[in-house]
Amino acid sequence: MSHIITLIPGDGIGPEITEATVKCLEATGVGFRWDRFQAGAEYMRRTGAPDPLPGEVLDSIRRNRIALKGPLTTPVGEGFRSVNVAMRQALDLFACMRPCKNYPGIPSKYQDVDLVLFRENTEDLYAGIEFESGTEGFGEINGLVAAHCQRWLRDRSAVSVKPISEFSSRRIAQYAFEYAEHHGRRKVNIIHKAEIMRLSDGLFLEAARQVAREYPDIWYSDLPIDAICSELVINPERYDVLVLSNLFGDILSDLCAGLVGGLGVAPGANIGTHAVVFEPTHGSAPTIAGQDKANPTAMILSSVMMLRHLGEDAAADRLEGAVVDVLRSGDHLTADLAPAGTEPVGTQAFASAVVAALESPSPIAR
To answer: Best exposed site among 210, 243, 326, 362 by fewest CB in 10 Å?
Structure first.
């Protein structure tokens, strides 16, 4: 049986790391049929399309229920909204799951890090509700905040709205506790800033605490976002499962990736009730696009997560083991991982080494 997967190569280095990942997946022996679609900034530039996220892409994901996606470029401070955010909201991909763990062969200042971060994906400041001074929406809000900040009455200003609901807060907490229970993880930390944002983050924290009481066998605690940043830099090995709202989750997942070697080795999944999109945590890196320099590890590991979701656990173990073999041997590392004085390999050569490790009758001891 072949699994039908929506495949979105993405922008920048996306097509290169997608090609490398598909090569590795097909070498596992699992059958795939790829439903290929383009989206993002490069798609708009090439085709003149008005929308970076065509409806046919969303229709394919709804139909197939699983997608593998390369990174998509989002303009900074101008242009269209983030395609990633739009996709998550359109498909109600409410949980962003980002595992971060040390692998042998990947340089890191830390050892024994093995944590999973769950980020609520649909609310918070990433809902994109913003108003600029001089607009009707801003005028409605201005009176509410002017008493707290008189500069709003005379300067050019803008405001972002931070919606938090009990439903979404409970849902992400429930998903994280369920994951912990089914994967033998014994600690969950809820991360917040409820001492300052007492209503919005207070609601998030209250809902998570209610969920925690339903799982008496899992140790639970909560920490302010600033405290967990300090703790992770000092003792990251103490943490197991972290649950955060949207913006804090985005920021902290990059910090956690830095604990284990960087964004180039950080996989991820965006999970909903009816669809899952697997993608690396990193961006599109346009400065090295088309140069065969990108590290495909994060996307290959995202595809390992996809295999487990499909129930192909044996293939997932083999592919992850092959990646470990290549990383540990140190003979075929991309430029971001190769030690000083050694010759790095390109994206496709790294993938070929992973395929060779998959097919080797005598793989390196794992």
So the answer is: 362
Annotated catalytic residue: which of 126, 179, 220, 239? 126
Predicted local distance difference test score (pLDDT) of residue 138: 65
- Contacts for 149 with CB less than 8 Å, ≥ 6 apart: none
Local confidence band at 306 (pLDDT 50, 70, 90 cut-offs): very high
Going by pLDDT thresholds of 50, 70 and 90, the confidence category of residue 217 is very high
User: Is 250 tagged catalytic?
Assistant: yes
Compute the distance between CA of residue 176 and CA of residue 191 in angstroms, rounded to an integer. 13
pLDDT for res 78: 47
> Of 51, 59, 109, 226, which residue is the catalytic one?
226
The pLDDT value given to residue 265: 95
Q: Does 325 participate in catalysis according to the annotation?
A: no
* Helices 347-359 & 14-27 angle (0-180, nearest 10): 10
* Domain edges within the chain: 1-103+262-366, 109-123+164-259, 127-162
Separation of alpha carbons 246 and 84, rounded Å: 13
Cβ atoms of 244 and 85 closer than 8 Å = no
| Predicted structure pTM score | 0.91
Q: Which of 11, 250, 325, 336 is catalytic?
A: 250
Per residue in 288-304, pLDDT (tens digit) is 999 999 999 999 999 99
For domain 109-123+164-259, give the CATH number.
3.40.50.2300
Catalytic residue among 193, 201, 293, 336: 193
CB-facing half-sphere around the CA of 276: CA atoms within 13 A: 15
